[in-house]
Amino acid sequence: MKLTTMTQISIDGVVQSNGAPTAEHPNGFERGGWAQGKGDDGTRAFITQTYQRADAFLFGRRTYELFAGSWGAIDQMRAHPIGVALKEAPKYVASTTLTAPRWDDTTVLGGDLAAAISELKEKPGGELQVHGSGTLVRWLLANDLVDEMTLIVIPVIVGLGARLFPDSGPDLALDLVESRVDSKGVTIQVFRPAGRPRYAGA
């Protein structure tokens, strides 16, 4: 399987609390929910179709618990095509603290995470998908485990919050595979890692 990621991200790189103000932080995040309702029908269909082609899903612990409490628990969401896709495919969680996953067909990956994910990628199938899970995506990129990355760029500058790419981190060249912009200004960009960038000489 190839490992693919899909991330909703602001113009300034924020990924925190994109769906709801208090989804990730009990004390609230006053600028949360910045991606909610954004994108047109074509973008929503693209997201749904992406979930439907997954052979398995990989999550960080926080995103897994958010999804388990929504897509895995609320009847209306469970019946949605995304909920159905999540129910039918095996789910893996990268966590050293989760001991009792509450969603059926879930496996917790502990120990040597890079080895465990590499083993998953060697299994037959199409895509091992990562949705959300910003901390995990940063780690996967740093460890050269991502085969394809989709960024859904929301036309907003949030101004604060956790960002997908750190201020100081590994560098990575990207090849653009696909790019489109919808009628509401949301951009979908699909990239494949292409080794280290080349820099101009002094």
Automatic annotation (TrEMBL):
Domain of life (superkingdom): Bacteria
Domain Bacterial bifunctional deaminase-reductase C-terminal stretches: 3-187
Pfam families: RibD_C
Single GO term (MF): 5-amino-6-(5-phosphoribosylamino)uracil reductase activity
Segments of this protein annotated with the region Disordered: 14-37
GO biological process: riboflavin biosynthetic process
Signal sequence bounds: none
Gene3D superfamilies (alphabetical): Dihydrofolate Reductase, subunit A
Listed PANTHER family: BIFUNCTIONAL DEAMINASE-REDUCTASE DOMAIN PROTEIN (PTHR38011:SF2), DIHYDROFOLATE REDUCTASE FAMILY PROTEIN (AFU_ORTHOLOGUE AFUA_8G06820) (PTHR38011)
Record protein name field: Deaminase
Biological source species: Micromonospora arborensis
Lineage per the UniProt record: Bacteria, Bacillati, Actinomycetota, Actinomycetes, Micromonosporales
